[in-house]
Records
---
Amino acid sequence: MRHRAWGLGLGAIVMLGARLPAQAGLFTVDRYFDIERVSSPRISPDGNHIVFSRAHVDQMKDAWVGMLWEMEADGTRQRELVKGGNPHWSPDGTRIAYMAEADGKPQIWVRYMDAEGAVVQVTRGTASPTAFEWAPDSKSIAFTMPVSDTGGWAIGMPHPPAGAKWTPAPRVVTRLEYRADREGFLDDDWNQLFVVSAEGGVPRQVTHGAFNIGSREDGIPGDIGLEWLPDGKTILVDGNDAPGAELQFNISNIYAVDIATGVMRRLTPDNGFWHTPVVSPDGKWVAFTGFAKTSASYHTSDIYLMHPDGSVLRLLSAGLDRDPESVTWADNETLLFDAEDHGTVNTWTASLTAKGPSIKAASNGVHVVALGSFSVKSGVGVATRAAPQQPAEVVKFSLKKPYDLQPLTHVNDAVLAGLRFGELEEIRYQTGGVTKVQGWVVKPPGFDPSKKYPLIMEIHGGPWAMYNVAFNPSYQNFAAAGFLVVYVNPRGSTGYGTEFGNAIDKAYPSVDYDDLMAGVDDVISRGWVDTTRMFVGGCSGGGVLSSWTIGHTNRFAAAAVRCPVTDWISFAGQTDVPLFGGDMFTRPFWEDPAPWLKQSPIMYVGNIKTPTLIMTGDLDLRTPIPQSEELYAALKLRGVPTTLLRFAGEFHGTSSKPSNWIRTQLYMMSWYNKYGPPH
């Protein structure tokens, strides 16, 4: 959640064991195996070299495999370096640190960037680092790692006889957040700060205590802010050391940690969701993002500044009303970041000394730009850029011309050459006579406006998320099979400001449903749609809204409800983010269950007539499969055509494994074609 016309019959799905023949010129499902993912570009401190991640599908292991590649700053001499991900250049530019597996556990490794290319495993043990950062002198690395809680429950259990095989002891659960999607059960531990020599050795634990280093959105482990001050004596981190932190929803502060003594000093004065500190090159300023504590379900973040001692707190991004991400320093007076805005993502600059507006757009265009890193010395940065018919590739830009994104990689050009893709057309319409909503239609290749096509409406998750214009293999595959694909950003989406995003505060679903139906109406009005063959689907928050939709209208011929929340009360005890559900309502369900029931799609199952395919991963801990089972059982009892698919080995979503991405596509289209009237 918060946190995103395959005409085969169901019986034909068993043929997936063999490679499907590609239909000439179209993006058929088997093309998915050939696409590579490019991410995490990092430019060397001197601006001469770039390291980036490149992942491909290993069909034998049914998994994505990530490799690190290097190239010159002009894009030449691209070569594979080592298996791993998340590269960080040392400040002196001689090495990179990265994450790679050792004995089945992700660990920190260092590779020398000379001709020899020697590698050193820096961390070892049964636990894995959760974040890391080079020291300013390039001699050591700070990292965070879980440390076991020494407490336990001793009951005086007798020892088993030699050779006996007793039943394992029960898992003792004492914390509210004791599991996390894609991780499983969490051990009783605390994420602490360590420092280790860049040459390896025994790490030294810096912080101690019953608290976690690292901000925790919705209460579960996530990204961790970790930044050295230039003197090498202090490290800035985010987190929450307050007693009872597990019951505080989206509270995080910035702390300064003395690495010699481990003493932590809180720098942010008021409670809020403050995170991701980044220090200016001269060490005079700390930039960080977040917002003050609020009862609203959603609020855009801002960029703030302060001195390293916490003084002179200053709001820098007043009036932006967008969520800044990947904030980094371009020089001592300029910050770079990227931000969602109306379905695109571009880079922006924030000036500390501007006499006029401090925030200005840097790049522009109908694309999604993800900022990688910036070389202060050379004035050059790197990012990835994705467009409607182009998967992400590495680009570079200069601070003087940040709008000039120069492509450096062409990883997928050969795969996509000769393929005909669906054209992406933007739509804008009003709902309720006042609210303007943005969306898009992906048209089948060779689209003929005089013909009528079956329509698929896909609904995004979140609910606080934003559909964007980046290449979407799922939608291009739908279009290749002859479907119109409609996707919109209803109220509650990000990228349109706090008021728009918070329109569903304590009322989810509500007006977002109205916006979705108005989007379907808008496309129908263009004369392209066969209204007898309209379908609706979505995962996570999209599963909430697709199950809500079929309980409030019978206009769709079939639905594919994926990884939904159907019952907010039972969800509160089943999910890995129990505080998330509580934040959706004014009072807990034991005090006032009526709103919880009113917003639960399961309460409208008596209205459903739409044949419904339900799909959820059997390991899902975010919207666990009992949520799907409740809907499935209710539909079966009512005699509504339905099928439940439990996807093996999948956590939240149904497509992390390449073969399951294909299954998801084929099952959905097979279901739609089964229940849509014949052409």
---
Amino acid sequence: MSTQHPSRLTTRKERLIVAGVFLVLSLVMWAHVWIAGSPFRTLPCSCGDATVQIWWFEWIAKAIATGANPLFPPGLFAHLGTVNALANTSDLSVGVLLAPVTWIAGPLASANLANLLTPVVSALAAYCLAARVTDSRVARVVAGLMYGFSPYMIHFVERGDTNLTLVIYLPLMLMALDNLRRYRWSARRSGLTMTAYTVLQFFTGTEFLLMSVLTIAVVVIAIALCRRDVLASRPDARVAALWWLATSALLLAGPAWLALLGPGHVEGALWLASTTPVSTLISHVILHAPDAATAWTGYLGFPGAQMNFIGMGALVMALAGWVLVARRRLFAIWWLTALVFIIAELSPASWWVQLPVAKALIIQRFAVCVSLALALVMALVIDATSQRLRVQWAPSVIAPRVAVGTIVAIILVPIAMTYRFPLTVTSQRTPVWFVKHATEITPDTTVVVFPFPWIAMNAPMAWVAETGLHGKLVGGFAMVPGKDGKVSEMAAPTPTENALLFVSYGPTAIKPSLLHELGHTLHQWAPTIVVAINKHTSPDTLADLRQILGPPTSTADGASVWKITK
């Protein structure tokens, strides 16, 4: 980190107080859930990533309770064989941690608790990392806010993407490396600690793991450019890195094979390639530009800024830091790191998808790397300014504090102005039929729900999760091979999926031949139960289903139900 370390690190009491401050802010952010609402009945949206999070939390808790294999859930995309949890955003480690909450209060409560706490712990991790470069509590708090409550964080926390909001891995890894120097940790202890962090992060989310490793590599290169003497004088850092790489490879070789080549893996890019072109650099990085994709991915409130939004104030202070900060080389390390990832965000996505392990990356999400580097840059700027003013304006105490407060406002206010707190939530209303009859579905029964769940239109995933995951759901939102058995089904849906989508959402009448083929497929899946929630299903869809399957077996509790036996 630096040859000049702050004299005072955080105490347990200080960390608890700061965590409390961050928790209050998170409670304000989620006031419609925890203060004015209920964590048992509200969520950001009955769609998109929010329902995926609920489904996986319920599955992980159920797998632990029943002894099932959590890596291959049978209850999703039943018609495509298997879903590979390691190839998906399954939040395995968080789901395991919150399993007791799920057992007692349900997956919706676990999801809301995760959404409440992930910004808090991420901000606290950045606060503790900032303590390695500054004595100023104000600077540390600003660093925590800029990381744990950054536009990147708000962008994903409002959608329920725990795998992208629990971003403590990178600060923890950097602190573990710093402990070699600060606390005289042995290379083995430091390396094994980093291995433990890496294993936990692998089962939380591989995308942030890859981005963090890239960030560490960039930081090391920046240190080599700015402080080559530090690397030359620390051979134990190289030994620690060898311990980390060797033990991580040993422990994660099997899981990594399952994720990349195991049953149910997806070949090619997991997500459609996208990038931020240079022409939009000003509107995305400097000026506030609303995020138009918010509603599609699972949030119905004010779209807010793009995840890579920095704000004019932070940009100005980052440039002013070259004049204000005395520890130029430490400042340069983090300034260059932020710059590298801003440039990476603007590079063509086609470059990244050529790399074997980079297919899981969306390059705009390098914004989290920029957030941490920029948070440390701002901490150094505030610390340097505070020290200068205390000397120049002595013996006055108030004037330096007012000046530092002004700088903090310059940094944070442009970012805060893009937020609308409390975040918008909706009431989760599980259809009465699922509440009363879901337990009657046997484990081997194929469940087809209308409206048909596919990608962002996936409310039935929450319905089946809230009622215990009975049966095997057709469709959903997950990374599974499509019609060719290789490419993601989002890019290459199977003919059956296309037919179900057309029946559920098609604007015109469906061809009789396609109806006949779909009916044949549904009978092949028997035992099958087709549940059309009348409130959410169009009359045309109900008419198509009657044409395919005949009169419903039952029409009760707000649903039309067809039971197909072998």
